[in-house]
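Journal club side-thread
Mid-discussion, someone asked how the predicted structure for our own chain would compare to the paper's figures. Pasting it here so we can look after the session.
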Amino acid sequence: MYGCGKFEDSVFLGYIDRSLDEERMERVDEHMQSCEACLEEAAELTRVNAAMDADVPGALPEILYLRVFAEGGKFLGFSWNGPSARLVPASAVRSGEAERETLRAESGSLAVMLRPVDGFYELELDGAGDGAVRLSEPGALLPLWQGRAEGGKLLLRGVSPGNYEISVDGKAIHLSMG
């Protein structure tokens, strides 16, 4: 049994290797947004699969999950299935004129940085290449934002807490910000 046990093992593993039909993928995606046990299990299995399948050390897993919790401009906790994540103290980061605590999560050459700012988040991507980037709500047909990273970097300000999917050159990052 994987995660909370809501799904049969074959469905859970099919989600991890992306072999489910679209309808089942969406159902499991929706469940992942609210189930900590399944999200953590999926993150661990994705990390293990990526390590086993990687032709290049540090290759980006097929599905990345980043969940953060912040209040009053401070991070209370986070989970990430990429190889490394760390909090950078506010004194080491400048965001405009204000110093802000930043979460930096990395996988391969891609880094995702989040900063809580006045009840919203700044979302920054580094190492995104010059490919297409999309920010959308899970299951939405149209993106909330789409464009290209300039020189591999992208900064989005005023992102509301919620659940999002970021597509970077066809790789998906599931982002849950509370």
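Post-session note: The chain has three helices and 13 strands.
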